[in-house]
Amino acid sequence: MTNESMYRVLSAYHEAGHAVVGHLIGRYIQEISIVSGKGRYRGYCRFNAFVEDMNLHPEWHETSKNPELITIYYAGMLAMAYICAVNEGIYEYLEGSEQSDLEKIDQLLLQIGSDEQQRSYLKDKRWKQAQQRLSDHWDAVNTIATCLLEQSSLTGGEAHRMIRKSIGETTSDWRVEVWNMQELNDVKKTTYKKAANHKQKGRRLYNRP
């Protein structure tokens, strides 16, 4: 396996870890990709706090100081560490890939305003929570990572549906409903644009001398 192939695999699992734990905790996934960035590590898992706010879920806003955000930040590095551990000798953990997430964790802990002892307790608690979530739903992580390796990116709608299917969720989910509506609107816009282009082309042909 080439270094490039290994980096893609590890990036896919890192972002899949963020996505699956984010879904389980309640976040709205906007997009997942492993084609962004420079150097050894690339990729992102974007959530959309604006859509969450608009659907009466303000608990994920940057000012919310929600400690469960720490769980999501830890999930990426833990997912990468796990896939390296079970494939020892094949994959090597990408040192430094967790730096951005660790910085976000430290910033959030400072916003929460806890003392050093409390910060240590929160880190340990959220680390263990991320471990448990990933362990309970590793099949979902595998599913998302595999699709990322095949397609390089996923919309949030695709990710939410895949995760729900993998973990056996059958109840209604506002995030899927929002994505269904957005995708329907996108289809309507595309159809309208195509119709307008055909109409314009027809006019040019009709008016041609």
Taking Cα atoms only, what radius of gyration do you get, to the nearest Å?
A: 21 Å
Structural class computed from helices and strand pairing: mainly alpha
Q: Which fold does the CATH topology of the largest domain refer to?
A: Methane Monooxygenase Hydroxylase, Chain G, domain 1
Q: What is the CATH superfamily classification of the largest domain?
A: Peptidase M41
- Describe the largest sheet: 3 strands, antiparallel
Q: Quick one: overall form?
A: globular
Number of strands: 3
DSSP helix count? Answer: 8
List the helices and strands in order: HEEHHHHHEHH
Distance between the termini: 62 Å
Strand order of the largest sheet: 2-1-3
Q: If classified by CATH, what would the architecture of the largest domain be?
A: Up-down Bundle
